[in-house]
Amino acid sequence: LSIISLIQNETPIMPWNELDAFWMPFTSNREFKSAPRMLTSAQGMHFTSDDGRKILDGTAGLWCVNAGHGREEIAKAAYDQLKELDFASAFQMGHPRPFQLAERLIQHTPEGLDHVFFTNSGSESVETALKIAVAYHRLNGNGSKTKFIGREKGYHGTNLGGISVGGLGSNRKDFNCLIPGVDHLQHTWIKGSEFTKGQPAKGAELADELESLIALHSADNIAAVIVEPVVGAGGVFIPPQGYLERLREITRQHDILLIFDEVITGFGRIGKPFAANRFQVTPDLLTTAKGLTNGAIPMGAVFAHNKIHQAFMNGPESSIELFHGYTYSGHPVASAVALATLDIYQHEGLFEQALALEHCWQEGLHSLSDLKAVKDIRNIGLIGAVELHPGDQPGQRGKQVFLDCYWQQNTLVRGIGDTLALSPPLIINEQQIHQLVEALRTAISKIPT
Ligand code: PMP
Q1: Same-domain pairing of 148 and 36
Q2: pTM of the prediction?
Q3: 182 CB under 6 A from ligand 1?
Q4: Ligand 1 proximity of 150 Cβ (cutoff 6 Å)
Q5: Record's InterPro entries (predicted)?
Q6: Separation between Cα atoms, residue 182 and residue 160, nearest integer Å
Q7: Can you give the pLDDT at residue 12?
Q8: Do 241 and 167 share a structural domain?
């Protein structure tokens, strides 16, 4: 006991000279370790930093803590489940939680998306969906349908399939081993749509480019089109009115599956359970993760349309229908946490609350349009982006604002190049929206123009 108390008294929470072993993901490790930014606890809308500051979370962690931090109900569900059944494989064996969870989840999806395959992350959900698409066509006697169409600026995780269909050069450039047979649509942002509130009115016709790609590759060779309904990590881009509808029309005409990657748009982020509900466009496969467990435990899911599931179930009785899965697919603790998360969303009406706050959020963000450094502002639901005019070095201004917000304004925002991406927990209130906007205003105002 005395040794422990000695260590606790004499050693800082994290000795700064011992940060080398953890190779941090998606982080400039050398820069970070010269001035570490360390979050040590979190409650509600706030993190606490190691130097004791309360930091307003403008990012819901990483688009995932939709119900806010430190939820007792979630902690209890994890603890209770760990005591009752810590692990049981879902390979050839069953345990109740993932069955209960799948039943609950399909109450929220658009009609037809009635089957759930569990994964551990967004990246795994994407790989799973791509594989299901190819296997589905093969089962239907269309074995040549193996190509994918992604889209510029798309982010679909970091596994090989995901970076191949993804449209971000930075994620691909160091890895010259992408999956073959992938092409990309152009992104959906068009000049003239700056400062649009919600969905841009123009741009639906950009979806027609898919017809040209089909003419080039032939529908006989294309398995699926994958897009994020609202682009997140690529810089936050809202689909033009009619665009997703048009993609749906064309894919349906050519027996090409449509995959919506809803890893960030799932679970109320844009005021409905999924973007598919909000835009009233039903994909064939829908990938998600993050808000599924409020970020508390890794878990992802792929929703499959009945027609896809049925194709697999029509095979010989004793065979494994889909030769795919993960040790932790449908993990009991993750499933219990997801069930507790869904309870919170439902009892607190958080999806509806996000929708109700959308106007305040939109007006708050767009009030920054008077700042000279601001090039564009985009928003839908409780997602937002403030794009800055680039300086001499692209990304530098975004980073400056991110750092200023963190150190000076006690606010966490995300810098994606020169775009500040915002996605607060859905429990945010109007006063906190105002606070977030003011923090951005102060930080952006420091940019020399
Ligand atoms: N797809 C989208 C749209 C995402 O935003 C992300 C993560 N930001 C992923 C996939 C990958 O999810 P994960 O990091 O959980 O693998």
Answers
A1: no
A2: 0.96
A3: no
A4: no
A5: Aminotrans_3, Aminotrans_3_PPA_site, PyrdxlP-dep_Trfase, PyrdxlP-dep_Trfase_major, PyrdxlP-dep_Trfase_small
A6: 12
A7: 55
A8: yes
Q: Distance (Å, rounded) from C-alpha 149 to C-alpha 396?
A: 32
* Test site for ligand 1: of 290, 328, 383, 414, most ligand atoms within 8 A of the Cβ: 290
Domain count, the chain: 2
In a shared domain, residues 333 and 364: no
Per-residue pLDDT of 137-159, as tens digits, reads 999 999 999 999 999 999 999 99
Per-residue pLDDT, 8: 39
Atom of ligand 1 nearest to the CA of 62: 8
| Ligand 1 atom closest to residue 265's alpha carbon, by position in its atom list | 3
Integer Cα distance of 161 and 130 in angstroms: 8
Tokens of 124: 């795994």
Listed in sequence order, the residues at least 6 apart from 29 whose beta carbon sits closer than 8 Å to its beta carbon are: 23
Please determine, for the modelled complex, whether the ipTM score is greater than 0.95: yes
Task: Look up the CATH number of the domain holding residue 191.
Answer: 3.40.640.10
Cβ 289 under 6 angstroms from ligand 1: yes
Check if the beta carbon of residue 133 is closer than 8 Å to that of residue 223: yes
Q: Which of 123, 236, 262 to mutate to test the pocket of ligand 1 (most atoms within 8 A of CB)?
A: 123
Residue 318 clears pLDDT 90, i.e. is over it = no
Helix (H) or strand (E) holding 433: helix 430-445
Short-list 223, 287, 289, CA closest to 260: 287
